[in-house]
Amino acid sequence: MTEDQYDDGMAPLPMYGTVRVETSVYTRHEAADFGSAATYSLTGTEEARQILTRDPNRLRAVILCVSAAGAVFLGSKAQAQQPAVKLGYRLPSGVPLEIRNQQEWWVVGDGSNPATVSVLVERWERKS
Hints:
Layout: E1 34-42, E2 49-52, E3 58-66, E4 71-75, H1 77-80, E5 89-92, E6 97-99, E7 105-109, E8 115-123
Antiparallel strand pairs: 1-8, 2-7, 3-6, 3-8, 4-5, 4-7
């Protein structure tokens, strides 16, 4: 097809197979297409709460806990809702945690100390 025959209304043709690059390819890093931020105030004694939903388009999330005396625990729903013992990752105050996966994340307080949890999410644009 020549450039003169190209029709903007044509649907893209799906291609399958293996691509082999035999020379250098120019790439560049770009900023995330979408982002969001949220802050959660915890008393330390409440039930676990979801802070990140499952997201296949998440590039990364940064979670930060700010507490005068305590910490929070991050993990799966099952870990965060465990009543007898605190499971998951203990996130101390002032230490940012970067997450680069799709799973949902839950947070629960340490049982006695108030804390604030801030979440920053960067997402890839979903190309269709």
